[in-house]
## 1
Amino acid sequence: MKMCIACGMPMTQIADYPLYDISKNYCKHCANKDGTMKTFDEKLASLTLRYMQSHDMDCAIAKHTAYVILKKLPAWKQK
Ligand SMILES: [Zn+2]
């Protein structure tokens, strides 16, 4: 089983892959409509928003948390 390199989500079904392409290392949530991977800034923005909404976090704290989590993932390690 593969894990998304950009968000860490386990990809267990073909529907988890962008455009059903199982050769990809990232999931559909981390892909653009054309199947290419989203950028670090795009993932950071969407994750920040999710934390603010689901945990009622302050914007700066949510952004920092999102940053720390994303930096642990293979796709963003060297950024
Ligand atoms: Zn992902």
## 2
Amino acid sequence: MACGGLPRPSLVAETAERGVRPEMNEDQFGPAGMVDALEKIAGRRHVLCSEPDRVAYARDLWPRSTIKARAGKTSARLPCAVVQPANEAEVAEVVRCAEAFEVALIPYGAGSGVCGGALAESPAITVDMKRIRHLEVDKNTHLARIGPGVIGQHLETELERLGLTMGHYPSSLYCSTVGGYLAGRSAGQYSSRYGKIEDMVESLRVVVGGGEVLDTAQCAKQHGVDLLELLVGSEGTLGVITDSLMRLHPLPRHRWYRGIRVPSIEAGAEAMRALLQGGLRPAVVRLYDEIDTLMASKGEEPSESSLLSRLLERAHQSIRSTSPSGQGGGLRALVERTARGLMGRVLGAPMLLSRATTLLPSGCLLIVGFEGDEEAVALESVLAAKWLQRFGEDMGAGPGEHWHSHRMNISYKMSPLMDTGAFSDTMEVSTDWGNLMHLYHTVKNALAPHVLCMAHFSHAYVDGCSIYFTFAGFADCLEETLALYDRTWKAGLTAVASTGASIAHHHGVGKSKSAFTAEDHPGGAPLMRGLSLALDPAGVFNPGKVWPAATLMRGDKS
Ligand SMILES: Cc1cc2nc3c(=O)[nH]c(=O)nc-3n(C[C@H](O)[C@H](O)[C@H](O)COP(=O)(O)OP(=O)(O)OC[C@H]3O[C@@H](n4cnc5c(N)ncnc54)[C@H](O)[C@@H]3O)c2cc1C
């Protein structure tokens, strides 16, 4: 059974059909002979060298890259070539090719990563994994062999036909791959019930240095050492994931959702903790702070862009509705300037705006949902409803069902916001229950001078919870916007590190947070260096991601 097709099909197909093969020069396309070698491995049709293809694969959805792209700046460095291997054997040959030509190798799923994991910082081959998309389901064991290139939505559609689910529903389900989830330790919206991706994986096959294939199950059996935990979350820095054995569950047939109004964010967090530590396994438990509560009640899953893009759209609409149609360049520029000015005035005073949000009506929305077998849902929901009475007011099924039907209405409105010079982003961090409120207040205070910030608490577990901060800022020109963006992240991550919390819950680390990895894992660098030398002696795998190349003393290949 195979799933789906390649995203960006038109671009890829058109390029191949036109047989575009630009004049090769070493600066852009890597050492002489490399593209020929790749074509021998994957076939000419599956080696992309045209500029549009290389631009398309040169970045992921890291907002910093999007800010630059919206300002008309393409990535500083494009990959030398993009190769689309059909199977594990071809991946192994591509790895040997990268080693022989001494260029970096960047695995690429669907490019929905938000941390710059796909950026090429030195001459590189980008390896698009979406042709490797096998799916073999064992209905008896509830295990499935899944290719790394399978898109999440395609996977769940196939499994649903068999009455099964993997239970992994990230908001990016339509535009991300299983390989990307495993590489970044992804979490779906139902993580409290099914766990994160690392809780769903039984074993992996990974092509490492020299094109060797490492099977974590066999390795554990033969040597008594299971490398699975080290490879999940390695973000392409230790090898290329070519196959996964994943656990499945029966498709839930019943659900129960509720909204609870709690008097404060603290009371809401206590309610979440009581549910999880009391032994219940809600599918969903999400707590919105005051400003995020305002957003959640407006019919859209709060996200990095929804509040501000809606503000902006309104501004554009009202300005345009008063402008004659067929407006000329001068008038259009005036419209843009007015929208920009409005945005600038709103976001240019983040402290004031943050203070204004304290005037919002107090009270936060907590969404709780159970899914599964009818009897189990009935039992758990009765208990949950009883326990939650202690913490707040039951608002009935409405808010929960509302969340459920809008849960995928997210983030795709990023671009209009960025056209005005504004930016937005999210920071997902996690800690234990005892440290949770300290983390929340410390990060909010650190971000307040720079950006407008809101947050929700989701992905709750027995021992702790993650906080998803959403923030937006504005500056007048590209340079200032990038400087503000960098200042904001530095302030935020410094604050997270000061509380001892983790800098990444499910987006990974990539390039954007790598300067803070050493603080997140004190003493981890020598271990990672040893691992990197063992699995990647030539130092080709996605250099500079997760750990700065210099920290691992691997140098860079530029
Ligand atoms: C709108 C939106 C919503 C999002 N919501 C969520 C969410 O709810 N939960 C969540 O966890 N994330 C979310 N993300 C982030 C993103 O979708 C995840 O990080 C996802 O796991 C990336 O998958 P991908 O296939 O797009 O990977 P890519 O972006 O292509 O790659 C991500 C990293 O993994 C590496 N990689 C990819 N494939 C392989 C492979 N086969 N072997 C080795 N390394 C590999 C890449 O080199 C890169 O470092 C969201 C992103 C967006 C844009």
## 3
Amino acid sequence: MQVIRWILGRLILLFNAVFSPKPMKREAAQQQQIDAEVRRIQLYQFEACPFCVKVRRAAKRLNLPLETRDAKQTSWEQELINGGGKRKVPCLRIEQDNGEIEWMYESADIINYLEKRFA
Ligand SMILES: N[C@@H](CCC(=O)N[C@@H](CS)C(=O)NCC(=O)O)C(=O)O
């Protein structure tokens, strides 16, 4: 089972690399502003998790320089559990304007959020 999972994970990464989405283009000033906003958002994820790949593809399509944090690393894993409440990925950590932190789970919700905010 572990081996099949590993093979599937590699296939997903291969597919993702071959059929990489094309980033949308923006005017330089607008892109700069978005880059600054995205610095306050991080994606907790596993490299070969299909739901995480889906979110990373959406971020790439939207041309967002989204920081990813590997939740298999103990420090990020602990931060995810402490902040978000569970060890599940993908999870988006969003720093709000008032400094509050929101932890968003569910790939569909995360993609919806990114599209609404940055598309
Ligand atoms: N419905 C969720 C599914 C997420 C999910 O199942 N993630 C798996 C990894 S692929 C997970 O975090 N499992 C918990 C674990 O491995 O500890 C989504 O779309 O984000």
## 4
Amino acid sequence: MVKITAAVAVKPKAPLEFRELELADPEGNEILVRTVATGICHTDLLLRDGIFGPPAPVIPGHEGVGIVEAIGADVQGLRVGDHVALSQSSCGFCGDCRRSHPMNCQNYTQYNLTGLRPNGKKALLCDEVGIGSNFVGQSSFATHILATENNAAQLPKDFDLTNAAPLGCGMATGAGTVINAMKPEIGQTIAVFGAGAVGMAAVMAAKVRRCSKIIIIDLNEQRLAMAKTLGATHAINGRDPDVVEQIHALTGGGADFGIDAVGIIPVILNTIKCTRAGGHVVLLGLDALGKDIPIPLDLMVFNRKIQGAILGDQIPQLFIPQLVELNQAGLFPFQKLITKYPFEKINEAIADAEAGRVIKPVIVFN
Ligand SMILES: [Zn+2]
Ligand SMILES: [Zn+2]
């Protein structure tokens, strides 16, 4: 057992509350990680607001990085002292895991969203309230995390952990969508709607894949300017009435690829409409969860493809080290997106993120 301090979501829109709790020792393939940093992602706020995941009270956080402090008896690939970035968890034995798509794991809910450990036990001891844990296989808004070997990717020890936090979700999602799901050929074109962390990661990955036109669309002029420093070749303000026409003009008839990293219906429809016949669209924004998208059938006739790509369809243990490699080569400079806060200021960090003042807040633990 280890004593921890956690920031707990208690009710929608309310500030997180700090609680002193006791975290169980790792069993089986579990690992105990001392948290060095965690990103704050929009999905944590959907959890706080009761839109996604187990009900409050619950510990959010799913971009945890840290140092392995203890391991369960069945852990094979990690040792005490290893540096890890945590991502979404998976079982390792279902059909999708065996087909190398662990982000689709058929046991996804059991491993990520029950508020309990995958083995069904409580992670938090002596907790009479029943605070949920193991959100996305971690619950990283706490000084220690009980994760599993399956959702931990090892990092080189010379890589700054306080910069590594967004790798497990935001960076994996944006970059994985381009590199794993879209696989553009050299010279193809892409439009990315939404210049948040996920959209910026997609822009950087599109540059890595040598896309010839990388078009970013957002309402925030500062973010559009930043996207251009990261690889966007063109920027369009989303308030323009002719966004789709501008993209068709820039790409000679429509982009090869379109990414929605916003999640509201009109933007999703523009993402589809801006692609050419045969275009490939990936929808990543989650704000319209539970709603229907009215897609004109005319848009589907000529081999357009629309898909989701949760966590960039990655295998964390393979993909996160690839992103580190790109970063160290100067090709994926995602630390430019980060604003760091001490753990005590987590509510300030969330407020700044919700107001659009920062792109990727990262909480750093002492
Ligand atoms: Zn996330
Ligand atoms: Zn599985």
